[in-house]
Amino acid sequence: LAGGIILGVALWLRHDSQTTNILYLQLGDKQAPNTFYVGIYILIAVGAVMMFVGFLGCYGAIQESQCLLGTFFTCLVILFACEVAAGIWGFVNKDQIAKDVKQFYDQAFQQALMADSDTKDGKAVVKAFHETLDCCGPDNAIGAIPPLWRDDLCPKDSILKSFLESSNCHKKIDELFSGKLYLIGIAAIVVAVIMIFEMILSMVLCCGIRNSSVY
């Protein structure tokens, strides 16, 4: 069940409309940075393997098989190590992910402001960011400049918001990825706690079977 829940959360994050709309964008030959998906794929793999390993543990407990329970314990240790490694990777890269996406947005924004006819990709990318995140402009400094570009690139409701509140896209990108990484962190902690209990209980059961007078 825990594996199924983790798999479901990971698949939801993977197919979330906001992240997919942004991370599938392409600016010329350059693809939007999709480092964020590395953590998602690890969660998907952990969830799927946990479902299989959980079945193995249940079957081993029903059959009272030390071999299956030992295999179950070994698989849990490996999964736990992978999850700790993924958690460390996510903590180290949490700021870099948003930074890379903001740099990609800034490049597209600079292209969109150019008067050349070859900047359609830049305008399309910027519009996708603005519509998906309901934001307008890269930062407050540029947002304070007379909005000659806003009618062309920004949704009308976000133009008003940009004057009334801080709705620049840099802030929205930070909020988007910090929120998603927060969910990934919670899922990882829950799985880690469950795994620790599973390892303890499987060893207790394995030792109980070994010391049982029946065997």
TrEMBL record:
Keywords: Adaptive immunity, Cell membrane, Disulfide bond, Immunity, Lipid-binding, Membrane, Transmembrane, Transmembrane helix. This is Tetraspanin. GO terms for biological process: adaptive immune response. The chain crosses the membrane at residues 36-62, 68-92, 181-205. One of its GO terms (molecular function) is lipid binding. Disulfide bonds join 135-169, 136-154. It holds the Pfam family Tetraspanin. It is found in: Basolateral cell membrane; Membrane. It is a multi-pass membrane protein. Belongs to the tetraspanin (TM4SF) family. It comes from the Eukaryota. InterPro entries: Tetraspanin/Peripherin, Tetraspanin_animals, Tetraspanin_CS, Tetraspanin_EC2_sf. GO terms for cellular component: basolateral plasma membrane. Gene3D superfamilies: Tetraspanin (1.10.1450.10). The gene is Cd81.
